[in-house]
């Protein structure tokens, strides 16, 4: 049965989607929309794109919280995607298809399976794209496949990126990109019933910086009621990369460089609002840190959305209540990135030790010993890769799950996604590169075999079962046991789906137990692996090579197309 469906699926998906488009008009309390209906898997999908949820954040609204857009007068043309948020697309045009950029980018897109009826009350999934908080676009993710295969409404949202989303100096408190995400989810809550969605069954999901965002939104108690479930694909709030430790420094540098340094902090923002966007973009694109694990413009502790570091927030039983009430899926890919082995001890380890452990040399030596001991070159390469992805992706995932269990109603599920990535990875590379999972959700046309197609359908079933009920399990699917701290069950999402327990126990122990003891030999208690006092790093200009771009840009599509 599956293989018959699959042949149909691949046959349908490989050609362009453009055939069989019909225009449709609907009316909603906010106004009318002209959208499109298309056929996929022999079913209808309705698409309404470019729906404004916030006023254009320009001029006086630049570097301010987003303002709700409200209603519109004439029928909205919702047939085409709007522009991407302002960003530097040079070198990325081949995979970020929408090269229109604008500060006026706060739009969302809605994919509705089968028919549009306010009665249908379908579960809703809201996708937050990745791209290191500095690039990316909603248009890249064609959610029609997910909507129709899983019978859910999918919404893809945009949020301000890079300095436009995260500028923080003077009177600017930063986190505008997060406020945008929250306003978009609020819009979904208020309006999705007009499109047939159930505002009481909302799942937010994202990958990489999208997963960091989902992680952060999931710990903010003020988001209670906006969504019930969260899926974090390669990233959680506890990753070193989720927060911007040099954002204030980088913001003040840019303000200086564009001539907006003023003694009155209020005037810095006022000045920055009227600087040409291209000038700001060029300045903010410089590197402000030599570290590979510091993103210049990213979320910060602002005393409002984020009063303290995420870890502190989750260790506090009163503030962690909201997070624990949510159902979550948290997982990683088996090989989050490709890193040249020659740089293990000199570059990577010293970077990690510097940024995460105040340049503690004992820590640097232990990481070097732990991950540099393999006897074969291939194994060594894989270990080096892990030395970086373990503290930034794998261990934060395990920590987040552990902090999610107990005294909460929310379910939690852990996965590792591991189908072998091929081109352009070297032979030693074993596993799934960062962002490979996206192909199985959004780009099924890129999958080469029927086995991959079958895995894709299974993933969609797990994800949409979860979105509907909070439980991933369903008929015809291998059982996925819930995670708990005693048994630590996880599922290995590969061509042959298998299950396991205690994922990478030895490596998790190293980061969560051994390292804290090195940091503080007299203490036998566990300490947070991420320190709460970030450093600015040093400010050398780092050569921007491909592996780093891939690491931060967080898109396999990029790595894939660039190397061709
Ligand atoms: C870019 O925007 C213009 C004007 O809105 C539109 O005509 C054009 O089709 C857009 N291009 C793409 C690639 O979306
Ligand atoms: C949709 O389902 C929710 C429960 O999830 C229920 O409270 C709500 O009334 C339903 N809405 C409609 C229009 O059926
Ligand atoms: C971080 O940057 C601020 C200025 O933005 C500076 O005052 C402070 O000394 C820096 N800290 C470190 C550890 O470099
Ligand atoms: C936990 O959070 C609450 C609410 O913000 C705060 O009042 C309390 O002081 C925190 N407790 C600790 C131990 O930080
Ligand atoms: C970290 O330690 C190394 C070795 O002692 C030193 O060369 C380097 O300058 C230090 N880096 C920082 C940022 O303190
Ligand atoms: C999946 O399992 C089948 C049957 O055991 C085996 O022949 C095949 O090699 C496995 N495939 C992968 C990718 O592990």
How would the blueprint of this fold be written?
Elements (H helix, E strand, L loop, with lengths): L1 H12 L8 E7 L2 E10 L2 E10 L23 E2 L6 E2 L15 E2 L4 E7 L8 E7 L15 H7 L2 E5 L4 H5 L9 H16 L5 E11 L1 H9 L11 E5 L13 H11 L7 H8 L4 H8 L25 H6 L5 H5 L1 E7 L10 H14 L3 H11 L5 H28 L7 E6 L18 H7 L7 H20 L19 E5 L4 E4 L3 H15 L26 H8 L2 H7 L2
Parallel strand pairs: 2-4, 5-6, 8-9, 8-10, 10-11, 11-12, 12-13, 13-14
Antiparallel strand pairs: 1-2, 2-3, 3-7, 7-9, 14-15
Helix pairs in contact: 11-12, 12-13, 13-16
This protein binds 2-acetamido-2-deoxy-beta-D-glucopyranose (6 copies).
Descriptive terms for the model:
single chain, 564 residues, alpha/beta, Rossmann fold, 13-stranded mixed sheet, two-stranded parallel ribbon, 18 helices, 35% helix, disordered N terminus, disordered C terminus, binds 2-acetamido-2-deoxy-beta-D-glucopyranose
